[in-house]
Amino acid sequence: MTQATSEELQQPVEYTVAIERSPRNYAAWEPDLPGCVATADSREHVLEEIREAISFHIESMREHGEPIPEPRRAAVVDAAAAPAARKEHPCRWS
After folding, report:
1. What distance in Å separates the CA atoms of residue 92 and residue 25, rounded to the nearest whole number?
2. Residue 83 is inside which H or E element, if any?
């Protein structure tokens, strides 16, 4: 999770961030803020970038009079840490 500051509440608000690693970079996005994305060459850098993106995204929503969504809670899952489990239980779409 990453934090952004809520001006109305004057306290930090935690947003859940999804991070995906590709062969060339890391991508991060915030599911509660559609279109709020960031990419970088390291996990640490993508976290910095998504924090900034969340702040700009919320600022833009406020400027346009859009409601700011409440963050949802989510579990943290490190899918890359368990390759054997993916082989035993592959995902299939029908």
Report:
1. 26
2. helix 83-88
Q: State how far the Cα of 79 lies from the Cα of 74, in Å rounded to an integer.
A: 15
Boundaries of every domain in the chain: 2-88
Give the C-alpha distances (Å, rounded to integers) separating 38 from 14, 76, 94: 17, 19, 31
Tell me if the pTM is above 0.70. no
Closest CA to 43 of 58, 57, 22, 15: 22
Architecture of the domain spanning 2-88: 2-Layer Sandwich (3.30)
pLDDT (tens digit, 0 to 9) for every residue of the chain, 94 residues total?
555 544 544 567 788 899 999 999 999 999 999 999 999 999 999 999 999 999 999 999 999 999 988 888 765 555 555 455 445 545 444 3
Coil vs helix vs strand at 23: coil
